Structures are given as structure tokens and as C-alpha cells.
Amino acid sequence: MFLSRYTNSSKMLHCISRMNSSTFKILNDIPTDNTVPQFTVGRKNGFLPWGTPLARLPEPFKIIDQILDEAPYYKRDGTPGLLATGSFGEYVRENLPLLDVSNIKDSALLFALYRDYTFLTSQYLLEPCHLHYLATKSKDYGLGRSRLPANISVPLVSLAKQLDAKPFMEYSCYATFNWEKIDPTSNLDPQNIRLIRHLEGSQHETGFAAVHIAMVQHSGELVSNVQDILDSVEKKDREEFDICLKKMLETTKIINVKMDTMWEYSSPKAFNNFRSYMMGIKSQPMFPKGVVYEGVSKEPTFYRGVSAANDSIIPTIDNLLELTNNLPDNSFTDMLRDFRTYRPVNHNAYLSYVEEKAKSIGVHAFATLDSNSTVLYQALLDQVSEFRERHWRFTKNYILKHSKHPRATGGTPIITWLPNQLATVMQSIVNIQSFIKEDKLSHENKQLYVELTKKANTQLRILNREVEELKKEYHGQDMDFQEVEGQMSKIAQSQSETTYGQAKSAVA
To answer: Which residue stretches, if any, does this entry annotate as coiled coil (predicted)?
Structure first.
């Protein structure tokens, strides 16, 4: 596969060191140097950019602002945009010049351009898919465009190379570098967020992205918690360790509460109105032969779409608790690791650091030497389980009730992907009870222990039964789709060709 993850370590400045065997340097303060990569992990910004996302582009890039303002299905004034009329592709081919984006020094401008070219890419490639979905009401997406014109692909690949990123839309493009505060003095809560770029343009899309951004605003505390836990284990300080675990519990509970506000800000019925444009090329029947990036290579490329799996919050906790070691050795776990390459490079390095550090100092082993620490550790596992269970509930209500498409936006099997991780953490909650001696627990921790173990046992049984029932309705959920990448089954291809003509006018 061409254009795999680039190596560009020179972008990590002297104040931000790469992972090594013992340490990882994070930002303690907001930088004054505008060349510091925006997604450098910090105690204040966490997994958000350290600066404010650039909402409008300077000259000579104003044409991109103009096109993306006109693009959404619903523009800001409520009138139909280019995507609503099926004229986006033609408009971009005729009006977007081939701009020089090489050697961009300002990190905010660099990432804003990357964000905007990924929006152009997704909207261009997936415009016929969304039109097909709406026109036929067949709950499939037909075929996407198989070629990306050079006026998008050449600048995008250049920007991706400068960022050591994939030349396709990532979670950071769609959510965490795509916000403005309505009130600059207030927090990044959903009601105070306005999106810079839209795919569809409804309040439900804004709410969907805003809830994710609101969750990530607490990642600075999370990063601080992680660092403090690692320090306390290294010092073998039991009292400090337990205090840090409790702080981490409070942070994860806040993030889970924020996540649950999704129902308030974005309707399940509206999700499929913008989900089309979040799809990727990889493991998707809409792109049986991939996409050729014109002006870059004659070989087709395959990339995953926007997915919450690109976020760094839960993977960080997984690695801290050494939960990653318990994941089954299967294709789903391979996909999970593949998703790591679809996030900012410094986030990826930090995740690797946390994983290696937790293993080397033995976070799990230290926790399980004391029954009260083990219960707190178990409670953190429960918060990870809550997060994943809520994500699974969103999948059932926002997607499965309204679509039979067998793949998630990131290309993973829609039924079995999330339960693979969810079942692992539930089982870990059950298994860890073997380290706990009830007579050593405080009264508070004894109640917590009984509640958590009973809850995980029950949820695990329900999950297994639920997945087996749903697999009867969705085919290919146990197959590693990557093995057949670049081709389709005869049935899927026949279905796409039958309906392709209905949307062909928008594909040209």
C-alpha cells in the first residue's frame, strides 16, 4: 500500500523528545513557538491542539474557505450547498487551483490546511455514495469515486508528509482541530462549540462532533493522572498510587458523563445524514479497487475513515492498565493497532511510551499486591467498560437501527469490532477478583468490589448473546476484510453495478 506512515522526526523540536526507554517529554505549558506541532501531548491541552484551531485561511488559500463554505448539504444560512445538488465534484475540478503547500512552518496553518484538504477529499470521493443512499433508500452506498484529482491529492500528500500523517481524514481533522468557541472565555462544552467545517451542516452534526470535543477537553487532566500514576509506581509509593487512581477515576467519570450527553445534542435518526462522508476507502465495498491519487501514484490506495478509535483517551488507559496485553490475538486486535497510525504522530508516540512504561515498571503487578489498590484498579477497568459499552449502545441506536451497511466508518465489522474490546475489559474485571482478599478491604471498597464483579459477569453474558443474534443479520463479521482488500464478492459487486447508474450523473 503506497503512502504509508511517513518518518519525519525532525518535526519534533528540541523541547519535545521522542519516546525512549525511560521517559517521554510532554508540554507543561503552552508554547510560544508557533512551529511546535499542534498535537503535542501536554498536561494542559492533553490530546487537544495546544493552540486554537485556525478557522479562516490566509491568502493564497482563501479559495478553500470559499469552496468549503459552499460545500455542506446545508450551508450556514440553511440553503442547499453543492453536495445537496450533486455538483461538488465538478465545482472542485473546475475552480480549485493546484496550490503550493510545501514547507509550511506555522503549525496551526499546516494542520488547518491538512484538515481542509481532507474535507475536500472525503466530500469529493463520497458525494455519489451519499446521493445514492438518499435517492434509493436502499441503505447501501453504491460506489464512490475511484480517482482523486491532482488539485486535491498533490497538496494533501505534501501536507500529510510534513505532518507524518495519512493523506485522509482523521478524527483530529473532523473533531479536535475543527472547533471555535462561541464564548472565548468559557469551556469547550457542546453548547459553546461551533464547527469550522461541516460535512452535512445540521445541528445534529455539530452536536455529534461537539460532544467528542467536550470529552477531549478533559484529556489534560487524564495525561497528568497517567504521569502521576506511573511516577507513584516507579517510587513504590502505595499511598500516592491510591490517591492517583482515585483522581483518575474522577477524570474518567467526567469524560463518561460528557459522552452520555450525545443523546441530547445529536439525534440517532439524523446520524446517517452525515455518516456517509466519514467513510474510508479501506475495507469498504464502495471502493472495491481503492482510490488512485492522481499526480501522486498510479497505484490505488486504501485508508480507513473517521472513527472514534482514532481518539487517544481510552487507548491511553488501556495501555496504562496493561489491558492491551489481554486482547485476543486476532484480526480485530490487529485492526486496533492499525488505528494507532491514524492519529497525530506525537499521540501515537505517547501511547507507545505509556504501553512500554507500564509494562517495564509493572503497573498491574504493583496494583495487585494490595487488595484496596486492586479494587481501585478494577474500578478504572469498569470506567473503560462503561465507555465501550456506551459506544456499543450508540452503534446499536445510531447505526444498526437505521442501516444494514456491514462496515463501520473505519472499515471494521460493525457487529464484532466493538464487542471484541468490550468483552476483553469485562473479562478483565472478572479475572482480577482473584487478587482481592475481601477481609483486607475497607468497607467502601468491599461494596465497590461486589458491585463491579457482579455487574461485569452479567454484562458479559448479555453481550455474548446479543452479538450472536446480530451476526445472523450481518454477514462477514468474523472475516478479516483486509485479506480481500481490492476486490469484492460477486454478490456485492453485482448489487453496486445494478444501482450505480442511478447515481452515475453525480460520479462523472
So the answer is: 453-480
- 3-state secondary structure string across 81-145: CHHHHCCHHHHHHHHCCCCCCCCCCCHHHHHHHHHHHHHHHHHHHHHHHHHHHHHHCCCCCCCCC
Half-sphere exposure in the Cβ direction for 405 (13 Å, CA): 29
Which among 31, 30, 39 has a CA at the least distance from the CA of 11? Answer: 39
> Which CA distances in Å does 136 have to 89, 409, 500?
20, 20, 10
The three cell numbers locating residue 208: 455529534
Kindly report the number of other CB atoms within 10 A of residue 333's CB atom: 15
Q: pLDDT, tens digit, for every residue of 115-149?
A: 999 999 999 999 999 999 888 876 689 999 999 99
* Position 49 in a domain: no
Say what the pLDDT of residue 8 is: 38
Least confident of 204-208, 414-418, 495-499: 495-499
Q: Quick one: pLDDT at residue 246?
A: 97
Q: How far apart are CA 126 and CA 115, in angstroms?
A: 16
Look at residue 294 and tell me if it is in a domain. Answer: yes
**405 known ligand binder:** no
Q: How far apart are the first and last CA of the chain?
A: 26
Q: Is the pLDDT of residue 501 over 60?
A: no
**What's the pTM?**
0.87
Let me know if residue 19 belongs to a domain: no
Summary mean pLDDT of the chain: 87
Residues 6+ apart with CB under 8 A from 359: 322, 325
| C-alpha–C-alpha distance, residues 143 and 105, integer Å | 38
Q: Which domain holds residue 159?
A: 55-495
Per the structure, the count of domains in the chain is: 1
In a domain, 4, yes or no: no
CATH at residue 440: 1.20.58.480
Instruction: State the DSSP H helix or E strand holding residue 180, giving kind and residue range, or none if neither.
Output: strand 179-181
